[in-house]
Amino acid sequence: METIGFAGLGVMGEPICRNIVTKSGATAQVFDLSPAPMQRLAEYGARPAGSVGELAAEVDILFLSLPGGPQLDAVARGPGGILERGRAGLLVVDMTTAPVGLTREIAGDLAGRGIEWVDAPVARTRAAAEDGTLSIMVGGTDAQFHRVEHWLAHAAEEVTHCGPLGCGQVAKILNNMVLFETVVALSEALALGTSAGMDPELLFRVLSKGSADSFALRNHGMKAMLPGNFPEGAFPTDYALKDVSYALDLAREAGIAAPGAELAKARLDVSKAAGFGAEYFPALAKVTGKG
């Protein structure tokens, strides 16, 4: 069996790694800047490593789950990183949500060292990561997809080949763009319905029975907005701003106007300015109608 490494054991990375390790039975090495998740994963047989570069020099497949583009670039092309220390034949499976252009640049640079790159960002919630029911979108060749699909299936109920390199990121970025726009619409509906005298819980329940029903309504609306539950351990406003900026980058590169994404970014900016940058991003409902 191929040996695997996993770097980036945060909110999503740790449960993804745990599912892959426990369900595959593979020999795994892990790395994170924080020792705590490495210690927890050691209980499942994973061996802590000293750096990402160390993983890249030793394993067959290296999974990454990082906060965003800057961190990914530093790990891939920075001192002691994958470009410098990775061995020929290594396959990197990047589960970070990162800019499409950066993904293709890094992959091109690493190809010169005989290192392959697949983008495989994830969708759905932390609870889905815990349960192994994520949706994973993969960009790469057919051969690369067939090599990684069974690994990713340990962490997901849906693993989709979206096309060549970078297309996994395209799908993920646009998935999040639509989600953020929908959450903005839900926040407006909540504010308007409440001001007009309707019970907010009843309003969302009625919407869920009609054409306004959505994953966002049933999860972000009912489970976060209604109870006012915006924990800091979930997907924060700062991360949402990062992801919607990637969508706007795609729009600029394509020369296509994206006013819905612009509005979502504007509402997230207001939420961040109000002090909710670290809170679960549906907290933008708290500033709807302001700013």
UniProtKB/TrEMBL annotation:
| Alphabetical list of Gene3D superfamilies matching this protein | N-(1-d-carboxylethyl)-l-norvaline Dehydrogenase, domain 2, NAD(P)-binding Rossmann-like Domain
**Which GO MF terms are attached to this record?**
NAD binding; NADP binding; oxidoreductase activity
| Domain 6-phosphogluconate dehydrogenase NADP-binding as annotated: residue spans | 3-163
Which residues belong to any copy of the 3-hydroxyisobutyrate dehydrogenase-like NAD-binding domain? Answer: 166-286
Q: InterPro entries from the xrefs?
A: 6-PGluconate_DH-like_C_sf, 6PGD_dom2, 6PGDH_NADP-bd, HIBADH-like_NADP-bd, HIBADH-related, NAD(P)-bd_dom_sf
The record, for Pfam families, names:
NAD_binding_11 (PF14833), NAD_binding_2 (PF03446)
- Catalytic residue list: 172
Task: State the UniProt keywords alphabetically.
Answer: NAD, Oxidoreductase
Recorded hits in PANTHER family, A to Z, give: 3-HYDROXYISOBUTYRATE DEHYDROGENASE-LIKE 1, MITOCHONDRIAL-RELATED (PTHR43060)
Q: What is this protein called?
A: 2-hydroxy-3-oxopropionate reductase
Biological classification of the source: Bacteria, Pseudomonadati, Pseudomonadota, Alphaproteobacteria, Rhodobacterales
